[in-house]
Amino acid sequence: MLRTIIPLICAVWCCAASAGLAQNFRVQVAAFTDSVPSSYFTDKGINGVIASVDETGMYRYIFGSYPTYIDAEKVQQQLIAKGFTYASIIDLEAQRLLTDLSFCNYFKGGPIPITENDSIRFIYFGLGQSALPETEKADLDYMLKKLNGKAKSDLRILGYTDAVGSGKANLELATARARVARNYLIDRGVEPDRMLLRVFGEAVSGNIEEDIEQQSELEEIRKLYRCVVLVWREAP
After folding, report:
1. Strands 195-202 and 153-161, how do they pair?
2. Per-residue pLDDT reduced to its tens digit, 31-88
3. Residue 4 and residue 165: Cα distance in Å, rounded?
4. Domains of the chain, earliest start first
């Protein structure tokens, strides 16, 4: 079965890092199917919002660039307090790792779906769990075979959670999930320096609950984000 994780409210763009300290996080103030005037934001004291249109035709309004998730989260909370309920954090590094793009398509590409292929696999976990399920070991074994088959290759291990719980707890859970995947491969002979961990905490905004009438539908969506994404890359 083809497994896929698609950014929902928290759309993600790619952009090459600028000189100096990389600004890897953005805050999306809002997103609409139709454009809104700048006064929609300035009337609430928010100046400097940048508008862009993604590949689906959605108008996305971005406020600021930030070096860390914590910096972006502070701004996100301020925006929510001002009435922008759907303010969400955009992580540029996640998509840069997954797509390996060296150019910036911040205003052109729009949200990029992540889908399993020969070089990408997903490891799914239970709610609040970091123990590796037996059913998910096959995908780690698949990556083990690829690493053993190409000495000059490495693996990106990207940890995610759903939006249940606090941001701090979710970062810790995402880290634990990424580590259990890495340790599984280390125990089978993969050198640690061939694996790079990245953790992103929650991957979907909790505000999505207001847009989904059926709790069961929300639960199915959240399951997609309780995962580790494995990205195999062959050195040039």
Report:
1. parallel
2. 877 788 989 999 999 988 888 775 456 678 888 888 888 888 999 999 999 999 888 8
3. 23
4. 4-99 (3.30.70.1070), 116-234 (3.30.1330.60)
Q: Are 228 and 122 in contact (CB under 8 A)?
A: yes
pLDDT at 99 over 60: no
Q: How much is the CA Rg of the chain, to the nearest whole Å? A: 18
| Parallel/antiparallel/unpaired status of strands 4-5 and 114-115 | antiparallel
Is-contact 49 62, C-beta < 8 A?
Answer: yes
Under 8 Å CB-to-CB from 157, ≥6 apart: which residues? 178, 181, 182, 195, 196, 197, 198, 228, 229, 230, 231
Helix axes 167-186, 137-149, angle to 10 degrees: 50
Note the pLDDT tens digit of each residue in 140-169: 999 999 999 999 999 989 888 876 777 678
Number of CB atoms found within 10 A of residue 32's CB: 13
pTM: 0.52
- In Å, the largest CA–CA distance within the chain is 59
Which residues, 6 or more positions from 130, have their beta carbon under 8 angstroms from its beta carbon?
173, 176, 177, 179, 180
Contact status, residue 25 vs residue 95, Cβ threshold 8 Å: no
Confidence of residue 185 (pLDDT cuts 50, 70, 90): very high
